[in-house]
Amino acid sequence: MFKKILFATSASPACDNAAKVAFDLARRNGAKLYVFHVMGVPSRGFSHMVRDLRSGEEEHADGDYRDWVVEELQSTYAEQMEGFEKNTSIELAVGVPHTEVLRFARQNDVDLIVMGANTREDDPGAARTRSIIGNTMQRVARVARCPVLIVNRPCTTCWNLFSNIVFCTDFSKAADSAFKFALSAAREVNARLYLFHAFDINASRLGVFPGQAELERTLEKAHAQMQERYLRHMGDFDNYQVDIWEGTPYVEILKYARERKADLVVMAHHTKEVNPDQAEIGSTVEQVVLRSACPVASVVHPDKVAA
């Protein structure tokens, strides 16, 4: 399914969970795995002086320093690389992290980017300090032409990558690309595909919550949208299940994924009808990324979703 996978890492413990998934996916797919590290932003004009993430000191990004960083990466991921060295390529860059990740992904036409929700323990956007995902991940997910797999917690349910895939939709245009990727992944690995919609009962008008009759009409309409928007495009694929619940979307998605023992949750990066390159990651996606026990694939562009 994936021929080229890019694992963007700071080599900090914050990336350990993403590393396991990235190497596992690459092995299962016989894919080329790029372990990609951005050494930092040049700190003196256009020079290659960078600030070392571990020591905090400025270093000249010359050949010796690059060799040392490569050795550190090889040491950090020695266990995962064992027996997979020929398919692994360690790549370095100097610059703004999200810009370099996107540049490398585009130049090498990768099929999937794997990242942690945060890449540095002291990231000011770290989950434990602000309960939001990191800036680098957000910027990569917003612009990437391929799906971005975000791993925030130890993957406790994806030992058989992937058996149960949950596709979550709000029936937006942006969700169509996510559906194509979810269906393609389910076909490829013969996984069961769960199509799920959570009707947001908190999005009531003027604080008036829907009555039972309105709720039933809404759920009936959602079933019709499932049929029209997705099921009629699935051809002979019949290993699926449709469910529609009401509640707070991210809470229901997490409950549903847990009950279905999901290995992967697939969602659109955002839902608003705006330029994808300018859209902020949706609040529901963000909460699912931070709390999900399995990886979450964020899809923003349709370019490579069905490859």
Question: How does the SSE layout of this entry go?
Answer:
Elements: E1 4-8, H1 16-29, E2 32-38, E3 49-51, E4 58-60, H2 63-76, H3 78-81, E5 88-93, H4 97-107, E6 112-116, H5 127-130, H6 135-143, E7 148-151, E8 164-168, H7 173-189, E9 192-200, H8 212-229, E10 240-247, H9 249-259, E11 264-268, H10 283-291, E12 296-299
Order of helices and strands: EHEEEHHEHEHHEEHEHEHEHE
Distance between the termini: 7 Å
Largest sheet: 10 strands, mixed
Number of helices: 10
Helix share bin: 25-40%
Total number of beta strands: 12
- In the sheet with the most strands, the strands line up as 5-2-1-6-7-12-11-8-9-10
Shape from CA axes?
elongated
In brief:
This protein is of the alpha/beta class and 307 residues long. Helices cover 36% and strands 21% of the residues. Mean pLDDT is 84; it is low at 124-130.
Structure explained in plain terms:
This protein has ten helices and twelve strands. With 307 residues, it is of the alpha/beta class. The strands form two sheets. The protein has a ten-stranded mixed β-sheet, sandwiched between helices. The chain has a two-stranded antiparallel sheet with strand order 3-4. Strand 8, helix 7 and strand 9 form a beta-alpha-beta unit. Helix 4 runs parallel beside helix 6 and helix 9 packs parallel to helix 10. The longest helix has 18 residues. It starts with a strand and ends in an 8-residue tail after the last strand.
Provide tags for this entry.
36% helix, alpha/beta, elongated, 12 strands, 307 residues, 10 helices, two-stranded antiparallel sheet, ten-stranded mixed β-sheet
